[in-house]
Amino acid sequence: MAHFLLRLFVKNADQTSDPKVRAAVGTLSGIVGILCNFFLFLGKVIIGTLSGSVSITADAMNNLSDAASSIVTLVGFKLAEQPADAEHPYGHARFEYLSGLVVSAMIVIIGFELAKTSVGKILSPVPVVFSAPLAAVLVLSIAVKLWLCLFNRTLGRKINSTTLLATSEDSRNDIITTAAVLLAAVIEAVSGLSIDGFVGLAVSLFILYSGAKLAKETISPLLGEAASPELQSRIVDYISAQPKVLGYHDLMVHDYGPGQRFATIHVEMDCKEDPMQCHELIDDMERECLKSHNIHLVIHYDPVVTDDPELTRLHILVDDLLSEMDARLKTHDFRMVPGGGHTNLIFDIAMPQDTKLTKQEIQDKLEEALCAREGKTYHTIITFDPLAFNQESCEHQ
């Protein structure tokens, strides 16, 4: 059904990096969500009022919040579709993340209000009138929510949207909570045991948990999370396959919303290569990366010395000494400046944030070990980079 609706309402649905296509998919999800959730809300609020069930009424309010969330999602995708302008040169795609944050905040508010109502029902219980229409509405709700869950999951995976995947997860949660409400109504009808208020409280707590979880997931890209391993691999696999490239490091990816990713990377080439040819190759790589992977890539050219045996030997030695301290410590941009009484070694170290070693300890231990091994005085001039920027760094052997 999801694929049928995509073909019917979304033009060029396979071009998922196109902001217009993403907006159309988000609009489709939003409209379907609004209609389904609003009709579920009407059915449940009528049955909940007639039966006196606070848990069913609570579940109805959850559907109303889901309808409002669908409106926010729809608006968010529309705003994210806007092109870049003078004030926002990186586009407006982060509106999609912001809409997800608003949705999660609404879920938390609804959950809090329903918790208060359920506590009141626990303190002052009122019998629930079980009926066939009540059971029918709840079973229908579960079926509709199951379809919405699968529908939004399909759309979310199609365009790689955390907002739509979160909406799918929210529908899955609704299936669980509605099933719990139905179970409470059946138990009370069969045994006379009034657990409606407790189930309503459990539903509200589940809603609160879901809202908090969704908030965490939507805040993360807004704060600036690390690029996924899959995205890093796409970039470095392409770079490493190019001629003349000896190595790469310092990969940084900036996410300005779906379809708006900017990246920088340092690429190592033999210093004896023609600079003009290297520049032309870099230009080609940047253009192809944008065309094939939709990533705005900026490449920094690092010329490296490949025919100095002493430099290569010291580079390997330094890497070995660092590995003895912490196997994750790696070097790049390694240079050597000989002097009269000492030799300067200049390089960068990719440093894990959770290492127990301080920068000064690493430098002191390294210089001490070098002097002990070589019988010479070495001064190290080190730039420490976060390991997160160098997860994929390598040098071709």
State the domain count. Answer: 3
Helix content: 55-70%
Biggest pleated-sheet summary = 4 strands, mixed
Strand content: 5-15%
The global form is: elongated
Beta strands, count: 7
What ranges have pLDDT less than 50 throughout 5 or more consecutive residues? none
CATH-defined architecture of the largest domain: Up-down Bundle
* Number of continuous helical runs: 11
* Strand ordering within the main sheet: 3-2-1-7
SSE string: HHHHHHHHEEHEHEEHEE
3D structure, described in words:
The chain is an alpha/beta fold and 397 residues long. It folds into three domains: 222 residues, Cation efflux protein transmembrane domain (Alpha-lytic protease prodomain-like); 76 residues, Alpha-Beta Plaits; 87 residues, 2-Layer Sandwich (Alpha-Beta Plaits), CATH 3.30.70.1350. The chain contains eleven helices and seven strands. The strands form two sheets. The chain has a four-stranded mixed β-sheet with strand order 3-2-1-7, covered by helices on one side. Strand 4 and strand 5 form a beta hairpin.
Q: Main attributes?
A:
397 residues, alpha/beta, Alpha-lytic protease prodomain-like, Alpha-Beta Plaits, four-stranded mixed β-sheet, three-stranded mixed β-sheet, 11 helices, 7 strands
